[in-house]
Amino acid sequence: MTLSIGLLAKAADVKVPTIRFYEEIGLLPEPQRAANDRRVYDVGAVRRLVFIRHARQLGFSVEAIRNLLDLSDNPERPCGEANALAARQLDDVEAKIAQLETLRGELRRMVQATCDGRAADCRVIEALTG
User: Fold this and answer.
1) The whole model's pTM is what?
2) CA distance to 69, 91, 98, 106, per residue, from 111 (Å)
């Protein structure tokens, strides 16, 4: 079974330009071409795109995804590298969560210090200026 780029995009829930981009950067192999020179994809391309999309949703970098795909393409290799990549990504996510919690606290303080008067007396403006 072969798919056009439009059907592949729909099946993997990505946009056509995303598919072309992933081909350009080597995450998705160059597709075969039909007699009319249109790109045709197999079911493996759907699985690969779903893998990439999920990895992107988890925040993995393109380089990390490239490494994970390489591991997926070579199932006999040990999975220690995949574990290390996931651990690094978890560390990054936890650092971002800590930053967001700090931002939330600051924004709460700003919102709680509401002002009903003039902008010159506004606590939000005051907090942002220094």
Assistant:
1) 0.81
2) 45, 30, 20, 9
